[in-house]
C-alpha cells in the first residue's frame, strides 16, 4: 500500500502561516514606503546609541569644525585682498578700464597664454595691455567677438620695455617659459640689486608707462653683453582669474 503525505489540518495551518508572513511583509514594506523609512531611522538610532561619539570624539569634531571655519575665513580674507588689489589697480589705471574673467589656459603652456571672456564686441583690441592684481601680466595677442587670447609676460615670445624705478635704467623684459621672466639691461652697469621694483618703461610704445611689473630676485652681473636679472612678477599669472584692460 503506497504511502501518502497527510493533507489534514496541519498542512492547512502551514499554508495560513505562510500567507500571514507574506501579508505581514507586504504591509511592512508598504509602511516603510509611506513613512519614508522614518521608523527604520529611529530603530537605527536606538541600536547605534552605544556607538555614538563620546566626549573625546565630540571635542575632536568641534576642533575640526573650528579649523574648517578658520580656513574659510582665511580664504575669504585672501579673496578680499585680491579684490582690493584689483580695485586699487583699477583706480591707479584710471576709470576707463574693462574687467574680464579668465575662462581657459593653454593645456601645454601654463606660462604662455590664457583666454579671457571679453572680445572685440566689448572693445578689446590686439596689443592692449592686460593687468592682474598688482600689475601687468601680458598683452592681447588675438581677438574674437566674444573672447581674447593673452600672451603672458612669461611666454618666450614676450618682449616688453621696462625700467628700474630706483635707478631709471632701462631693459627688456623677456619671458623664458617659467614663472619668472628675465630683464636684459641696456647698460653695462644698471645698478640693479635684489628688491628693486620693475615698471613699464616711458619709452615703450606697447604699454602705458610706470605700470608695476615685478621685483628683482637676483642679478647676473657677468652676463654678456650686459647684466640680466630674474624678476618675480607682482601679479601671480598662475592664479589670476580676473583681469583689467585699460581703455585707450
Q: Helix amount, in percent?
A: 25-40%
Mean pLDDT: 76
- The fourth-level CATH homologous superfamily of the largest domain is Rod shape-determining protein MreC, domain 1
> Could you say which overall geometry the principal axes of the C-alpha atoms support?
elongated
Uncertain regions: pLDDT < 50 for 5+ in a row?
90-95
- Number of E strands: 12
Detailed description of the structure:
The strands form two sheets. This protein has a six-stranded antiparallel beta sheet. The chain has a six-stranded antiparallel barrel with strand order 6-7-8-11-10-9. It is α+β, with helices and mostly antiparallel strands and 248 residues long. A hairpin with a 7-residue loop joins strand 1 and strand 2 (113-116). The protein has two domains: 15-44, no CATH class; 88-246, Rod shape-determining protein MreC, domain 1 (Thrombin, subunit H, Beta Barrel). It has three helices and twelve strands; from the N terminus they run H-H-H-E-E-E-E-E-E-E-E-E-E-E-E. 26% of the residues are buried. Helix content is 31%, strand content 28%. The model is unreliable at 90-95 (pLDDT under 50).
Amino acid at each position: 500500500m503506497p504511502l501518502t503525505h497527510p493533507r489534514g489540518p496541519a498542512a492547512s495551518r502551514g499554508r495560513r502561516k505562510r500567507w500571514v508572513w507574506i501579508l505581514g511583509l507586504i504591509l511592512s514594506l508598504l509602511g516603510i514606503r509611506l513613512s519614508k523609512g522614518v521608523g527604520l531611522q529611529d530603530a537605527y538610532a536606538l541600536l547605534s546609541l552605544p556607538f555614538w561619539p563620546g566626549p573625546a570624539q565630540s571635542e575632536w569634531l568641534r576642533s575640526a569644525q573650528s579649523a574648517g571655519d578658520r580656513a574659510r575665513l582665511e580664504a575669504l580674507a585672501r579673496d578680499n585682498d585680491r579684490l582690493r588689489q584689483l580695485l586699487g589697480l583699477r583706480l591707479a589705471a584710471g576709470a576707463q578700464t574693462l574687467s574680464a574673467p579668465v575662462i581657459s589656459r593653454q593645456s601645454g603652456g601654463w606660462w604662455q597664454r590664457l583666454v579671457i571672456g571679453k572680445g572685440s564686441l566689448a572693445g578689446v583690441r590686439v596689443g592692449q595691455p592686460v593687468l592682474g592684481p598688482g600689475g601687468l601680466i601680458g598683452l592681447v595677442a588675438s581677438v574674437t567677438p566674444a573672447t581674447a587670447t593673452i600672451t603672458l609676460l612669461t611666454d618666450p615670445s614676450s618682449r616688453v620695455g621696462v625700467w628700474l624705478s630706483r635707478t631709471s635704467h632701462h631693459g627688456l623684459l623677456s619671458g623664458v617659459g617659467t614663472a619668472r621672466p628675465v630683464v636684459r639691461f641696456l647698460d653695462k652697469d644698471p645698478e640693479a640689486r635684489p628688491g628693486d621694483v620693475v615698471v613699464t618703461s616711458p619709452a615703450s610704445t606697447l604699454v602705458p608707462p610706470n605700470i608695476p611689473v615685478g621685483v628683482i630676485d637676483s642679478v647676473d652681473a657677468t652676463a654678456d653683453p650686459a647684466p640680466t636679472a630674474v624678476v618675480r612678477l607682482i601679479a601671480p599669472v598662475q592664479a589670476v582669474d580676473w583681469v583689467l584692460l585699460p581703455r585707450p
